[in-house]
Design brief:
The protein has 241 residues and is an all-alpha fold. The chain has one domain. 74% of the residues lie in helices and 0% in strands. It is built from nine helices and no strands. Helix 1 runs antiparallel to helix 9, helix 6 packs antiparallel against helix 7 and helix 7 packs antiparallel against helix 8. It is globular and about 50 Å long. About 4% of the residues have low confidence.
């Protein structure tokens, strides 16, 4: 089902975004109470994925296929990360596939790699992002960990996704910001995984902050792409990318 009437699309988009926001905040606030007992954590996985699933539904209703694929693979990654420690790397693979769709979307809607490189602010941002990726990986992921290589590969895909967003036109600034927020959120994931905090309150706030950075990144990518003339207005004609 798609919604071609601007008024219907506006109401549906507002409802989906509101529900996604509420679910994201609720998960971030109560996540620490959801993982009791042995895995798998089925309810937790569905709860965690729900907010981004709704963003994916919004993209589908807007006929933004590449955007929807990126969001829905991201929600699958959320579910797999929550399901069990044994599905962590499978979840990372789902995110990686989602990044591939995002890269294709950004490059399709962008001004071109060459044009972006010729723009000093974009070039500086790209160099800074690459440096941050190397520094964060070296500081947060132990080299003797069995997950160092697969996570380094994943970080490369994540970095390419954020770099691809720098090719988007200025009208897509919200999506660019979302890609950077997504990039930052993975630093929280690595910190929580390899450098857990002993103080429960601090651990809770760090986990909450990382989750909200992630969800805000996905939401900004979604809304930013749907509100641009290139992919269709969120409150007007749906996009078809």
């Amino acid at each position: 089902m798609t919604l071609d009437k601007p008024a219907d699309h506006r109401k549906t988009a507002t409802l989906l975004l509101a529900l996604s926001t509420v679910l994201a905040i609720a998960y971030g606030a109560f996540a620490s109470n959801l993982y009791e007992g042995p895995p798998p954590f089925e309810a937790s996985a569905m709860f965690k994925a729900s907010s981004v699933v709704l963003l994916g539904v919004l993209a589908l209703l807007s006929r933004a296929r590449l955007l929807a694929a990126g969001l829905l693979f991201g929600s699958l990654g959320d579910a797999l990360l929550a399901w069990s420690p044994n599905t962590f790397l499978t979840g990372a693979l789902a995110f990686l596939i989602g990044h591939v769709f995002y890269i294709a979307l950004f490059l399709c809607k962008g001004v071109g790699v060459v044009a972006a490189i010729k723009c000093p602010p974009r070039l500086l941002a790209a160099v800074s992002l690459i440096a941050a990726a190397f520094i964060a990986t070296s500081l947060l992921v132990p080299r003797d960990s069995a997950m160092f290589t697969p996570l380094a590969i994943y970080t490369g895909a994540l970095t390419l996704m954020a770099l691809a967003s720098f090719t988007l036109p200025a009208a897509c600034w919200l999506s660019i910001a979302g890609a950077v927020l997504f990039f930052i959120s993975d630093g929280f994931v690595a910190a929580n995984l390899f450098h857990p905090l002993e103080e429960p309150a601090l651990a809770l706030w760090r986990s909450f902050a990382g989750w909200m950075f992630y969800w805000a990144g996905q939401a900004c990518i979604c809304v930013g792409m749907l509100r641009t003339p290139l992919s269709g207005m969120l409150v007007g004609k749906p996009g078809r990318s």
